[in-house]
Structure formats: structure tokens, C-alpha cells
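Every protein is a chain of amino acids, and every chain bends into a shape of its own. Below is the pair of lines this work produces for a single protein:
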Amino acid sequence: MNETSSQQAQIDLMQAALDHISQGFSVFDADLRLVAWNRGLYEMLDLPHALARRGTHLEAFLRVNAERGEYGPGDIEGKIQRRLERAARFEPHYFERVRPNGQVIAVSGTPLPQGGFVTTYTDITAERRRQEKLERTVAERSRALQQSEDWLRLVTDNVPALIAYVGSGPVFRFANRRYADWFGQSVASIVGRSPAEVLGPDLYAELRPYIEWAFEGNAVSYEYSRAKPDGELAYMRSTLIPDMTADGRTLGIFVLSLDASDQKRSEAALVQSQRMDAVGQLTGGLAHDFNNLLAILMGNLLSLKRKGAAVSASDVEAHLAPMLQAAQRGADLTQRLLAFSRGKAQDVIDTSLNKVLDNTATLLAGSLPPTIRLRFEACTDPLTARLDPSQLETALVNLVFNARDALPDGGEISVSLTPATLAAKHAVAAGVTPGTYARIVVRDTGHGMDDDTRMRVFEPFFTTKPFGTGSGLGLSMVYGLAKQVRGSVRIESAPGEGTAVILLLPARLSASGTGSRAADAGGPLPHGAGELVLLVEDDPAVAETVAQQIKDLGYTVLTAEGAADAADLAADVGEIRAMLSDIVMPGQMNGLALARKVRGLRPDIGIALMTGYADLGEGGAGETGACSAGGDTGFPVLAKPFDSRKLAETLKAIVSP
């Protein structure tokens, strides 16, 4: 075989290989004449086979395409000429051409070093069809997703709840209209904001521990209060649910908040019902205590009367001491019973738990049969919890009465308070977060409970007592109190082994602060220097007694029996330096209205109020026998009866220098 035949064989072999390529292929030289091609080129583009010969000029290919409309309508010669000019520049190029039959051809040209170019033609019709189908599918699904989101927005905006989603950051990713409105935002403006921005610094500081606990993968429930734009206080009950992946990562938290204001009012009514039921049971014991106190007073008075003129100063002192103690004890009991029965709901406050136990012991003293021994074990450390003290007192009283009912033949009831620090493991078992807790245990030696009863005791209206003797609300309210402050309650009991109700309340150890107060109580009484004090009291006997106390403290007293007379005296007598007025008086003007009127007439007069009520609504009396700020009254308030020290300190504080 000669050399020419060998070269031709190689060319034929190469051509056969090119014909088996699925793409079209062509090579044009520097003069734009065809040098090489494959069968795929002609089959893909439906080109006449007459063009399939070396030396065919590019113009012939362009003319075929132009004449059959592949380049669109218009000037055929102009279209051919423009394409020839571009090809003669031998620049890399890529474009996609849609043929009249809908076929999509991708054309890619690469220049050769000696001039000319290699061009490949790829049928991408199927690929483009798939892409278009995918785009249509994406568009349809996007529309469906948008419709779904619109429906979700419609539903969540009309649900009577506050709904939101907080993502990592943390920042809000979603909020329904009610949630956004509640915090003064729109559904658009709240997205991307942090909880600190949306909630405000004060509320965020209160709720931050719950948010952090939820982001650690825990479901959290809590309550908080917030003033509405009209000033009314609303109570919200919220639940945070973590949005977690299969591998345990928290992506965000779902937020559901409900307005619990009506429920809180209902709960308050139920609590008051329980409280009044307890008051009825307390009165027997208190009557016994008051009879004992009256016996002390009457016995000492009769003893002094029998001695007549022969009584000595030492005899008077010996008889006065127990009488004063009995009177103070009676005042304390009265104030505690008034405060307990009124049970004014408070926002949670820092509360000394030892003091709550002392108050409860005072209320319960003498209220149990002599066959039952009641023992209180206070904590040696000063434990403070943030809660409503009246609610806790009610809970303890009800628990003690429940224990009493379990001891028909007598026995022992103990109420103990101890601190407890719970690590993560024990906290989870108790259903609380790790930290410091107050552990209050009410234990009795009664008949105990079986498992069925123990499992149901916290259900509202469940009771084992005979019909008409119990509401079944006591333990459910104890449970509600524990949950409200993020604590827990559980019961340990078995038939014949007694019962223990164990309360865990979040608490902290605090400084006692009692030493300095005790020291102050022993100092000399502050006296006046003859300043004129206007005393307003409608009860003549009380007015005479208080007036004498004021005189003994070094002041001059001017007495008025009614508010109208007192207002005239305050306006006319320029020497008056202070006014002490009872709040509850007959007539259209009470003591509080009088104080405000006198303050307007004579701002130079110091004013204090006094009352025999534990709660005044607009102005409270404060602690038993103590001088307080008077709640919203703006004036100090003395709770009757008061001793000379409290009166002296109050007068010293209000008399102008």
C-alpha cells in the first residue's frame, strides 16, 4: 500500500469515528471553506448532502438556513452578510438557536491557530424541555407554597392567640397579627428583630431565662403581666416549644401566648372562696385566743380595782405589762385575719418565707383540736421567694386543714421550711430548672392515700370528703401556685403511713436585716417641741386616747370630729404643723379626700392617715401596726392599734421643720 492510500485510510477511519459522535461537527479553514464534518451535522440540522464536500463555503450553509427561515423573517442577504463578517473575525462564540420546528441547538465555536474554527452542534432540546418543566414545577410549587403561607397567615391571624417563631440569633422569623399588635409592631416589621428589641428591656429581662431554657431544647411554660395601651393590666400565659432536628440541634422556638386575664380573675374568685372557707374554720380557734386575751385584760383590771387606793406603782407596772402584751397580741390576730380574709391579689413580690410561716402559725394557733399537735419548723437561713404571700398563706392553711381531716383520732402535723439546691439531674426529675429552691413540707401522721386517690388529688373539684364539706379546690390551687412561680408540688403517701405534700418554690438566700431594726426599736422615742397637731377622729374614746398619746410625745393637740371641721381648721389656723386623720369617717368626705384637700390648701402641713382596716383598696395599711407609704394615697398610713413608738416616728417624719 502506497503512502497516499495509507493517508486516505487514516482519513476514512477518522471520518467514521466522527460520524459516530452524537454531536454535529464541522471545521472551516481561514477562507471559511469546509474542511471536515460528520454525519451528525447534516442529520441534526437537516442540511442538503450536496453541501457535504470539502471546499464548500460557509455562505452556502448560511443561505440554506436563511432561506428556510431559521434566522427569522427579514432581509436574507443582510442576515447572511452579518454572519459572514462575524465568522471572519474568528472569535470564540456560543449561542443557542431555536429552529422553526422547536428544536434547540447549542452552537459552540473555537478558533484554530492558523485561522478558521472548529464548531460543535449539540441538540439540547430535551434538556431545555426538562428545564422548562422544572421551572414550571418550581413556579407551581412556589404558588402553592405562597397559597399555603397565605392560608397559614389567614388562620393564625384569626386564631385568638399570640403566635410567633423565633429563630437562631435569636430573632423573630414569624409573628401573627395579634402577636405583632401586642408589641406595637407589624407582621413585616417584627421579622428580623431580636426579642430584646420587641419585648423591651424590662420584659425581656424577665423572660430571658425562659427563652434561653427553650433554646436548650426544653418546653417551657410561664406567665407574665403587661399593661395594655388603655392601662389595664393583662395576664399572658405562654408556652415555648423548641424546633429541633433529628440530631438534637435547636433551630428555633415556637411561641404560643394566650390572654389569661379572665382565667386569672376566675382563679382569684376560687381562691377567695377557699380563703373564706378557711376563715370560717379559723374563727373557732381565734375566738378561743381572744377569750384568753380578754381573760388576761379583765383579770388584771379586776385585780387593780380590788386593790383600789392601796395600789402601788410597781403593782400598776406588773399588771400593765401583761395587759399591753395581750392587747398587742389581739391587734396582731385581728390584722392577720383581716389581711387573710381580704386576700388582695398582688403582683408577685419578694417574700420572706419564714415570715409567711410565722403568719400562718398565728392564724392556725388554737384552730385545731387538742388531740392534734401542730409544729412549725422555720428555716435557719433567711429564704426569700418571689410570689404572692397571701396565696402561699392560703395554700398552707388549706394543706394543714386537709391534714387535720386525715387525723380523726388525733396525731401530728408538721410544716417545715428548708433550702434545697437542685442540680440538673434532680431538677429534671422534679420537673423544674436547676437552681436554689425553698422546700416546704406539710406532713401528717394520718391514714394516708391509696394510689388512685394520690393520682387525682390535684384535679379541680376532686375530693374525698363528704358532699357539702369540701370543694375539692384546695390542692388544685396549691398546684396552680407552684406552677405559676415555676416550682413544683408532689405528694408522698401510702395507706396507713401518713401524707407529705412537698412544695418546691424558686428562692434565694437573703440577708436578714433584723438586727438593725431590733436595735432601733430599743432607742429613745423622738419627741416634739410643742408643735400643733390636728387630730381628726370621729370616735370620741379613740380620739381622747390618741390625743393623750400625742401630748405625751411633746406635741399640742387640736381635735376635730369630722372632715368638714378639720378642713376649716386647717385653712384658718396657721399654727397647725401636722394633721393625723382617720380614713373611714361618716359623711361625704373620708380621711383620704380630706388629706388631699388639706394638701391643696396648706402644702406646708405634714399629713398622715390611720385606719383599722387591713386593706383600703386605694390606700393600704401596710404591715400590722406599721407606718407604710399608704399604697397609692401618697401619705403615710398607721394601722390601728399602734404603739407610742410608731406614732412618734410618724409624727417626727411629717412635722415640718
